[in-house]
Design goal:
The protein is of the alpha+beta class. 28% of the residues lie in helices and 22% in strands. The strands form eight sheets. A seven-stranded mixed beta sheet has the order 9-10-7-17-14-15-16, with helices on both faces. It has a five-stranded mixed beta sheet with strand order 12-21-20-19-13. It has a four-stranded mixed beta sheet with strand order 23-24-25-28.
Length: 698
């Protein structure tokens, strides 16, 4: 078993019907990517409308399901438009060509005499009485997409840039937590306090006697319960958590960053290019670190499972329903085709949150009550303590200057907890409950995602700047007991923060304007364009040093996807207040310019929260956060005005947008705080405590 990011889905699902299905008066788009609120379905509908000539309202996106959709692995890496969008575009173009060719035969005319407008087939501008959806019912949709000659006919005009899913989302209609099924039971699992903990004792009879409890389920160290009424499940789980006895090691280091800095894990060379600068070259060094970060979804993880004979149905909000299906099948001893998973919106996620584990919890409880659906919903404490966090990191960055003050080389050294523990990674199901049940197995020691696949701890660690020498040397520290996995941007967040902080430190050391320094070390005109654009969006900027400052951050996500530059204006008083944020982004062809702007703005706000506030508290080998009071996040009152400019390049391939803003925002904020105070604050979050600690250290 392996986890996958499918990069050429047409090679696996090559037929038109794998991607498109005419159904009455609608054309259904069948993508394996899941709609997490990022607007993927709306963008795919827009692509299909533009290519087929159908009106926007005649197309709908089919929710991803393992029995209906092509297997596209995980919805991750900002690849949905780049990969799935391309497949849908090619399939839609092939469908249009088949319809035009069929209509030409019926009309006895040349194909180039026909066009499609609002789904109607026209001949020299006149309606033929034929329409694409009507013809599609009789077309052979097993035709191979890449073997269909694409007929170049006029496309639809402007396609609405709308989000048909938003009305239901605002009303709360589509969410998993609100689904009511006949015979539904409510399940809760009593999770262990940390990853290696084992259940020693619990009074199962007393738990079974709690009000409303229908059944107690225990399998090894896995402990859960079922009730008819959800409130009974909540109260019974609270009682059980207070009366169960666990055994676990409590000698883990509380200062995780110090543990990363002092780890003796041998370094791995990710990249080395060019000739190393002379040993006597002038050096500028900086360090950046981040703590563990929670996904911080406002709604906790949930899932519904129904076990009937040897068939399991699951409704969940996993980012990877196909890898999850395979992982659950292996863990439960079922054939993959006996497990059917349907994606249903719930709490948003930014990588591997608790959705997969909640699905496994629900399946184990449903196995105990065949024929009755079981919904499991985690508590906020479960979400903080049991779900995987984003990895803590310490990144050391060093620049070598030549005699003219130009950067002759840069070395970046990430030290990081693992970023990749998704279901299926490392050939293991990687479902937390599997290590608890009788005969189960703990996950293997996690490995890093190769740089060729986007990288994990070393993602974006290779500077995009044109330098004579670049070196990336990483250390993956997998000995800490805190559970980590994929969170938006993976190592790219901390690596871009370190590189962009270093660029500003070089600018300060050489008396160079930070924007001019970046432009002079870039040979990619698209990179230069986003920096110049954001610099021109701001008007006069603070002079710095008096508690008010500005800073810039830039990166190309994974060095292969979207370009993003962010400029921040901040005031540092008792806390860091962000006055305003500007951003310029280039994601190639912008399928939905409004969607791109929304994604960048959302990424900026999330990165603001990570950079200024968020840190998962740990002590004695366990996460201690129980409520939002223990894990503060950005409040609405702290959201600054955000202005985003999208540089649309319609002739370039579309690139991912969702994760592009994370690192540049952190870099811009760190540099703005340095400009305001005259001191670099190396460790996140940039809150009052961390600033005071740095200033006291001198």
């Amino acid at each position: 078993m392996k986890s996958v990011l499918v990069r050429d889905p047409l090679s696996l699902f090559p037929r038109i019907g794998d991607w498109l299905e005419p159904q009455g008066a609608r054309l259904l788009v069948k993508s394996g990517r899941v709609e997490l609120g990022q607007g993927i379905d709306a963008a795919l509908i827009r692509i299909a409308a533009a290519e087929t000539g159908l009106p926007h309202g005649a197309i709908a996106a089919l929710p991803a399901a393992t029995h209906l959709s092509p297997n596209e692995g995980f919805t991750a890496g900002s690849l949905s438009i780049t990969v799935s969008g391309l497949a849908v575009r090619q399939a839609a173009a092939a469908l249009r060509s088949l319809a035009i060719a069929t209509a030409a035969e019926i009309r006895g005319c040349a194909a180039d005499a026909l066009s499609i407008r609002d789904g109607h087939i026209l001949q020299t501008g006149e309606d033929t009485g034929l329409d694409l959806l009507g013809l599609a019912q009789g077309l052979d949709l097993s035709t191979l997409v890449r073997e269909t000659p694409v007929i170049d006919t006029p496309r639809n005009g402007a396609v609405p840039d709308t989000r048909p899913d938003l009305r239901a989302r605002i009303a709360g209609a589509p969410f998993l937590q609100d689904i009511a099924m006949d015979g539904l039971l409510h399940g809760r699992v009593i999770h262990p306090p940390n990853v290696p903990a084992q259940l020693i004792a619990v009074d199962e009879a007393a738990l079974a006697a709690r009000p409303g409890v229908v059944k107690v389920v225990r399998d090894g160290a896995f402990l859960g319960l079922l009730t008819e009424v959800e409130w009974h499940a909540v109260r019974a789980a609270e009682w059980a958590a207070a009366h169960v006895t666990w055994q676990y090691e409590d000698n883990a280091p509380d200062d995780v960053r110090d543990a990363l800095r002092t780890s003796n894990v041998p370094p791995e060379l990710s990249l080395e290019e060019g000739d190393a600068p002379d040993a006597g070259a002038r050096r500028v060094e900086t360090t950046a670190s981040r703590p563990y970060i929670s996904h911080g979804s406002i709604g906790p993880s949930a899932a519904i499972a129904l076990w009937q004979k040897d068939r399991l149905q699951v409704w969940c909000h996993s980012q990877g329903i196909f890898p999850l299906r395979n992982a659950m099948a292996e863990a439960l001893g079922l054939a993959p085709e006996s497990v059917e998973i349907t994606f249903v919106p719930a709490a948003g996620c930014y990588g591997h949150n608790g959705a997969d584990d909640a699905a496994m919890d629900a399946a184990l409880l449903a196995r105990a009550v065949p024929g009755r659906p079981v919904r499991v919903q985690w508590s906020r404490a479960d979400e903080f303590g049991f779900a995987a966090s984003g990895a803590a990191m310490v990144v050391e960055a060093e620049a070598f200057l030549d005699a003219d003050g130009r950067i002759a080389g840069m070395v970046v050294r990430p030290r990081s907890a693992p970023h990749m523990n998704r279901p299926g990674s490392g050939g293991h199901p990687n479902l937390r409950a599997l290590s608890l049940i009788e005969g189960g197995s703990p996950p293997p020691v996690p490995r890093d995602l190769p740089l060729a696949s986007g990288g994990g701890s070393d993602r974006n660690a290779a500077p995009l700047y044109a330098l004579p020498y670049r070196k990336v040397e990483k250390r993956l520290v997998d000995t800490l007991p805190y559970r980590t996995s994929s969170l938006r941007a993976l190592g790219g967040f901390a690596n871009v923060l370190a590189i962009e902080a270093l660029m500003d430190d070089v600018a300060a050391a050489t008396g160079t304007d930070p924007i001019a320094l970046r432009l002079s070390h870039l040979d990619d005109p698209r990179a230069q364009a986003v920096i110049r654009t954001v610099a021109g969006m701001t008007g006069p900027r603070p002079s710095g040093g008096d508690g008010r400052g500005w800073g810039i951050g830039f990166a190309r996500y994974k060095n292969t996807a979207g370009y993003c530059a962010v400029l921040a204006d901040v005031t540092v008083d008792e806390d860091v207040s962000v006055n305003r944020i500007w951003s310029a982004v280039d994601v190639g062809e912008a399928i939905s310019p409004d969607g791109v702007a929304n994604q960048i703005e959302g990424g900026i706000l999330q990165a603001l929260s990570w950079t200024l506030k968020e840190a998962v508290p740990v002590a004695a080998g366990r996460v201690t956060a129980q409520t939002w009071d223990d894990y503060p996040i950005l409040r609405f009152s702290e959201v600054p005005p955000v202005t985003v400019t999208v540089l649309d390049r319609p002739d370039d391939p579309p690139l991912g947008a969702g994760e592009a803003a994370a690192g540049p925002t952190a870099g811009a904020l760190s540099n703005a705080v340095r400009h305001a105070l005259g001191v670099r604050i190396p460790d996140l979050p940039l809150n009052r405590e961390m600033i005071a600690r740095t200033l006291l250290r001198g």
